[in-house]
Amino acid sequence: DAGVIQSPRHEVTEMGQEVTLRCKPISGHDYLFWYRQTMMRGLELLIYFNNNVPIDDSGMPEDRFSAKMPNASFSTLKIQPSEPRDSAVYFCASSDRATNEKLFFGSGTQLSVL
Amino acid sequence: RKEVEQDPGPFNVPEGATVAFNCTYSNSASQSFFWYRQDCRKEPKLLMSVYSSGNEDGRFTAQLNRASQYISLLIRDSKLSDSATYLCVAGRGGGGNKLTFGTGTQLKVEL
Q1: Between chains, do A42 and B103 touch, taking CB under 8 Å as contact?
Q2: Which among A46, A41, A45, A38 has a CA at the least distance from the CA of A62?
Q3: What's phi and psi for B105, nearest 5 deg?
Q4: Which residues in chain A are closer than 8 Å to B34, comparing Cβ atoms?
Q5: Cystine design at A49: which of A30, A32, B62, B80 (Cβ 3.0–4.6 Å)?
Q6: pLDDT, tens digit, for every residue of B79-91?
Q7: Three-state DSSP class for B3?
Q8: Using an 8 Å Cβ cutoff, are A67 and A47 in contact?
Q9: Are the beta carbons of A76 and A11 closer than 8 angstroms?
C-alpha cells in the first residue's frame, strides 16, 4: 500500500493568497483527519471525516479554513486568504473502523506564508 | 491547561541507558492511550498502545495510571536509533476516536 499521500510537500505563498492542500487516504480507510503542527501548540486536530462526511470541525481555527472530501479517495484543506500565522506543517491521516485507534499519517505539507 | 501535557525535554542519555517519560491528561473521560514516535521532519507513527494492565513491546514498556491520570513510557537499553520525539496521546474512544496529542518529549541518545 502506498500509504497516505499528501501534496504538495512544501508550499510557500504570500499573505492573502489561497492555499489548497491535498490528501489521498489509504484505500479502504473510512476516517480521514486533518492536523496542524507547530512548535508552540504541537499537533492540533482541525477536522475529521467519516465516510466522506465531516463529523467534527471544531478545531478549524477560522472561516478562512475549509475542508472537503468529495469522495473516499480525496480530500482538500483550503485556506483563503492565507496569513503568516497559518505557517505550520499540515498532516493528513486516515484510519479504518477495525483499527480506528491507529492513525496512519501522510508525510505532511510544510506551509510557509510570507 | 493543555489536555495532554509532557515535559518537552530534551532528554540526553548515553547509549544503553534506561529512560522514562511521563505524561498527564486532564480529560477523565479519555478511554484510549498511545505513544507515537516522530522523527525530525517526519510524520508521527504509532509506537504502542497503552493498556491499564501495562504492556511491553521489546525494550519499550508503557503504563497507565487512571487514578492519577498519567501515562508513562520506559525505554530500556536505549539505542542511537531511539532518538526522536515521543508524543503522548489520549483518545475518547469509539468511532473516529478523536485523539489529542501532547507536544512531545525529545530524546537524544548519544554515544
Answers
A1: yes
A2: A46
A3: -120, 125
A4: 101
A5: A32
A6: 999 999 999 999 8
A7: coil
A8: yes
A9: no
